[in-house]
Amino acid sequence: MAGHGYETGRLNLPFVGIATFGKRPYVEDWATIDADVAVMGAPFDAGTQFRAGARFGPRSVREASTLFSFGHAGAYDHEDDCTYLPAGVRIVDIGDADIVHTDTARSHDNIRTGVQAMLAAGALPVVIGGDHSVNIPIIEAFEGQGEIHILQIDAHLDFVDERHGVRVGHGSPMRRAAEKPWVTGLTQVGIRNVSSTAREGYEASRAMGSDILSVRQMRALGARAVIGRIPAGARVYVTLDIDGFCPSIAPGTGTPSHGGFLYYEVLEMLQALAERHEVVGMDLVEVAPDYDPTQSTSILAAQILLNFLGFIFHARLGK
Q1: 123-163 per-position pLDDT tens digit
Q2: Is there a cis peptide before residue 244, judged by omega within 30 degrees of 0?
Q3: I want to staple 252 with a disulfide (CB 3.0 to 4.6 A). Which of 44, 129, 215, 297 is the partner?
């Protein structure tokens, strides 16, 4: 190793060590968060109505994220001719919200507490699910944080009001969000084909301020035009269901729906969003790794999260 200054210290390859998100520092005490970004797992999947397994999403996405852990001084992008996520952007992993088996209310309470701790610390909250019901306590945590607009990228509308008395399943998070007075509207992109929401749900969604676009409509408009439909000046929260992508590249999910987005379509929407709007938080949900032995779904999730964080802080730093 002598004579190679860049090889001093540990090499710390992706397959070595503890798999925190991006191999960033772990903060166990939520009262001591001091970072620009805090990543939390929400391994809850009791809200599913078909194939469960997203409880293992946070663990699998963290492991996949180690693939991108070489960029200690940031990641250079030759297309944009800039370095994303330079060393000055502090990212920490605060572990998982505690999940109490069979107890949705307590599990959701713990998720909400984690997001509240991240917001209190001034860190951008990033939550890895878990099924899409985890978005419900996340949005509840934004009470008192000012008005937000939600960008949802998803195959399904998730606007069910109630099914057999259940109001907090993974088919209802956007309905619960739209009811919040601090949520000013939703942009729901990728919604397609046979869905989990009846016609009445679509009518209710539009009546409550939603802009609904299918994959084909998004492609006709283009990524930047879609983001241009979000009201100017809106502070935006992003919820990304991995089934918004085509299952040909993201099979590891409980409710796959063919005809979804490809990688760059979503990436370009997120880049345009970061350039035009303040992003206040995000979640990525429904990764169920047992349905994807290639791990490509988890790698896709980790890659999209890290790139999006790069776009957000590039815009914030003005570089």
Answers
A1: 999 999 999 999 999 999 999 999 999 999 999 999 988 88
A2: no
A3: 297
Please say whether the dihedral angle defined by the alpha carbons of residues 78, 82, 88 and 90, taken in this order, is positive or negative: negative
Both structure tokens of 35: 């970072």
18: alpha, beta or left, given left = phi > 0 and alpha = psi -120 to 50? beta
pTM for the complete prediction? 0.95
Tokens of 114: 């984690």
pLDDT per residue as tens digits for the range 21-58: 999 999 999 999 999 999 999 999 999 989 999 999 99
Q: What is the CATH number of domain 28-317?
A: 3.40.800.10
- Measured distance CA(136)–CA(250) in Å, rounded: 24
Q: What angle do CA 124, 126, 131 make, to 5 degrees?
A: 150
Question: Residue 17 — left, alpha, or beta (φ > 0 → left; ψ -120 to 50 → alpha)?
Answer: left
One-letter amino acid identity for 256?
Answer: P
Residue 59 CA, chain-centre distance (Å), reads 14
